[in-house]
From TrEMBL:
Keywords: Ligase, Repeat. PROSITE patterns: NHL. It comes from the Eukaryota. One of its GO terms (biological process) is proteasome-mediated ubiquitin-dependent protein catabolic process. Gene3D superfamilies: TolB, C-terminal domain. CDD domains: NHL_TRIM32_like (cd14961). The gene is Nhlrc1. This is NHLC1 ligase. It holds the Pfam family NHL. The keyword Ligase applies. One of its GO terms (cellular component) is nucleus. It comes from Drymodes brunneopygia.
Length: 233
């Protein structure tokens, strides 16, 4: 294993990483909540680009097949598309593509349809600790469907507090749920929401997930500080 991105004040240092993705051209892109920036590195760990386009709190991000980056700004309540030539370290465009979101954090892009799914974190009402809302947008940023924890609880057997999201290779929405300590499939955007648990045992506090090229599912479990890999079969 290699590590890069020292904690410090230099331009390519990472103060408080919140999310990471890898582009199709082999660059590692990180959101840094410490200095409200987005930083890109090559696979040798060399910093190639740092973007500070007036972000308030950049949080989640995911790469498109064209090596663009879809990015949430949790404090601004916005979704951005970042286009850059990472080989040359040049920012081409940083465009807000959706606004009026509520504390958006995790985000995923469907590699086939271009659909985007965002997890919003809603403020608590009364003594509860708040809830989450899964919002699905088309590639043109039109709302396809959304459901918050309360609505999902009416449909499903348990309260869902979603922390991370991904699309599988068939274009289904997959979320981690820290309430039931599970990974749940919510179906394709056009059939959302369905309820199909994928992993219901062995997780403590799942906060991240991604699919590998071979279809294996990788879970980041902060409950026991581990990375768990599940086969597709």
């Amino acid at each position: 294993l290699r590590r890069f991105g020292e904690r410090g004040e230099a331009g390519n240092d990472i103060k408080y990483p919140l999310d990471v993705t890898v582009t199709s051209d082999g660059h590692v892109v990180v959101t840094d909540g410490g200095d409200c920036s987005v930083k890109a590195f090559d696979f040798e760990g060399r910093g190639v680009l740092a973007v500070r386009e007036g972000f308030c709190l950049p949080w989640g991000l995911d790469a498109t097949p064209k090596s663009e980056v879809i990015l949430t700004d949790s404090e601004a309540g916005a979704l951005y598309r970042l286009t850059a030539d990472f080989q040359r370290g040049e920012l081409k465009k940083c465009q807000m593509i959706r606004s009026r979101l509520v504390s958006p954090r995790a985000v995923a892009v469907c590699q086939t349809s271009g659909a985007v799914v965002v997890i919003e974190h809603l403020k608590a009402r009364g003594p509860s600790k708040g809830s989450t809302r899964v919002k699905i947008l088309s590639a043109e940023m039109e709302l396809i469907g959304q459901m918050d924890s309360f609505g999902l609880n009416l449909v499903f057997p348990s309260r869902i507090y979603a922390t991370a999201v991904a699309f599988d290779k068939e274009g289904r929405v997959i979320v981690t749920d820290v309430c039931s300590q599970a990974v749940i499939c919510l179906g394709k955007p056009e059939e959302f929401p369905i309820f199909s648990p994928l992993i219901s045992h062995g997780l403590s506090y799942p906060v991240g997930l991604t699919y590998m090229a071979n279809g294996s599912l990788v879970i980041l479990d902060s409950g026991d500080h581990s990375i768990k890999v599940y086969s597709s079969t």
